[in-house]
Specification:
heterodimer, A: alpha+beta, Ubiquitin-like (UB roll), five-stranded mixed sheet, 5 strands, B: 269 residues, alpha+beta, Uridine Diphospho-n-acetylenolpyruvylglucosamine Reductase, domain 3, five-stranded antiparallel sheet, four-stranded antiparallel sheet, 10 helices, 21% strand, globular, binds flavin-adenine dinucleotide, binds FE2/S2 (inorganic) cluster
């Protein structure tokens, strides 16, 4: 079996029933996709398979034979983040980050399919993804901003905001 | 590098048929064969070795996917993903759209949903209800060869069969009512499907009142009076407590859903 991950072709040694998630993480050491529940319930393992968002923990690698896989490593680079990644940073849509790679890929698929900034449509698209940190509002804001094509200067993201000024002193 | 995967599948022979005929032959009488449709239920079972089958039959490339409509008779291949069903008429389309989320519907198959087993903590074959309501028939293979039968009898013996396709006559009207799910990860605790055939006959079915979908014959007999039909439906079921809802709650809500579906059917000319 062969898969292409982020543009690089790989011959796969794992057995055909091995979940794609385990092939990516254990055989290919591509650790962007996370194993949150390993049974389809959290979305942390979501990757794009031929452009479609898929839970990689549920997909026998035989079902991805010949496919092009995109993981978060293939979205952008630290120096040049993809627009959806910039939007997540700007909107503080990640805290611990465990859900983030799955969220980003599901969001990318939503945007690639012409998704708009309608919050309900975004919630529907990300419905399979659990986040234990953010409370989701910031994630929806980030996807909406990306859908509107907004761009961000991340060097300015925190300037003038989120600054605590403490006054007072010895009496 | 050898994988450190949890999947202890080395002892399992993997069969990857590329046509219906090959799939039927590979399945044989089904002894020791685990059928993998979309895998959304069985893959974790394999990963965690709750299942250690002698053979696994992968349906993805077996040519069992697709929907045909010949003069209102619709035939759906068993390996068709649920995403392809969401635009079908009620009660089937709305039920399919209510299953899981986009990523699950993209791979989960009709055959896997019809054959979804007694779950660990809740039933999970939501499409059984709508397909019962439209009087669907299932074509399947196994001991004795290829046979076609009503979904009711197929459900009784689904463990020993390879589902190939499911067919139904498009109803004159259809309706689907379900308890809302708090999150897409939850299964539907209770749902009622109804369909009115071209001859005016009304068929009703429920999921969430047992391990698989059931017809509601007493409610059907009282279909002219939605209130009475709702009460009558309780004679047709023996719901259980599970992780999603108590039997008590299901008995409270079933009449409401039956009433909703019948009222909706009345409204559709
Ligand atoms: C996050 C999540 C949410 C879910 N939400 C729902 C929900 O809302 N409603 C719901 O009903 N289900 C839900 N499910 C369960 C499951 O995804 C669906 O029931 C799905 O349709 C199963 O199809 P599959 O092809 O993936 O099944 P598989 O895992 O491939 O198979 C399921 C069972 O059917 C057998 N089988 C598969 N195909 C055939 C065939 N052609 N002939 C004979 N036997 C066959 C298998 O051997 C196995 O026993 C959910 C699952 C997850 C992970
Ligand atoms: S690890 Fe795949 S859905 Fe949770
Ligand atoms: S950021 Fe922690 S789970 Fe989402």
């Amino acid at each position: 079996m062969n898969i292409v991950v982020n543009g690089t072709a790989h011959a796969i040694e794992s057995g055909p029933l091995t979940p794609l998630l385990d092939v990516l993480r254990e055989e290919l050491e591509i650790t962007g996709p996370k194993a949150g529940c390993h049974q389809g319930g959290c979305g942390a393992c979501t990757v794009l398979v031929d452009g479609e968002p898929r839970r990689s923990c549920l997909l026998p690698v035989a079902y991805a034979d010949g496919a092009e896989i995109t993981t978060v490593e293939g979205l952008g680079t630290p120096e040049s983040l993809a627009p959806i990644q910039q939007a997540f940073v700007h909107h503080y849509a990640a805290q611990c980050g465990f859900c983030t790679s799955g969220m980003l890929l599901a969001a990318q698929a939503y945007l690639d399919g012409g998704g708009t900034d309608d919050p309900e449509a975004i919630q529907e698209a990300l419905g399979g993804h659990v986040c234990r940190c953010t409370g989701y509002a910031k994630i929806v804001d980030a996807v909406a901003a990306a859908a509107r094509g907004e761009s961000f200067d991340l060097t300015q993201t925190a300037v003038g905001k989120y600054t605590t000024v403490t006054t007072g002193g010895a009496t | 590098m050898a994988t450190a995967s949890l999947a202890g599948t080395a002892a399992t022979e993997v069969l990857r048929p590329t046509s219906e005929a090959e799939a039927v032959e590979a399945f044989g009488d089904g002894d020791g064969v685990l059928v993998v449709g979309g895998g959304t239920i069985v893959v974790p079972d394999l990963t965690y070795r709750r299942l250690r089958p002698a053979k696994a039959l992968l349906l993805k490339d077996a040519g069992l996917s697709g929907i045909e409509n010949e003069g209102g008779r619709v035939t759906i291949g068993a390996a068709t993903p649920l995403a392809a069903l969401v635009d079908l008429p009620a009660p089937i389309g709305p039920c399919a759209a209510n299953i899981g989320d986009r990523e699950i519907r993209g791979v989960a198959t009709v055959g896997g949903n019809l054959c979804a087993g007694e779950g660990y903590e809740a039933p999970r074959g939501d499409l059984q209800g709508p397909f019962l309501a439209v009087g669907a028939t299932v074509r399947s293979a196994g001991a004795g060869g290829i046979e076609e039968e009503p979904l009711e009898s197929f459900l009784e013996r689904r463990r020993s069969r390879l589902a190939l396709s499911i067919s139904f006559q498009t109803p004159a009207a259809g309706a689907f009512a379900a308890l809302d799910r708090p999150h897409t990860h939850d299964y539907t605790a209770l749902a009622v499907s109804g369909a009115r055939g071209a001859d005016g006959t009304i068929r009703l079915a429920a999921t969430g009142v047992g391990w698989w979908g059931v017809r509601l014959p007493s409610a059907e007999a009282a279909a002219d009076d939605p209130e009475a039909a709702g009460r009558a439906a309780l004679e047709d079921v023996d719901p259980q407590d599970d992780a999603l809802a108590s039997a008590w709650y299901r008995r409270k809500v079933l009449p409401v859903l039956v009433r909703t579906v019948l009222t909706e059917l009345e409204g559709v000319a």
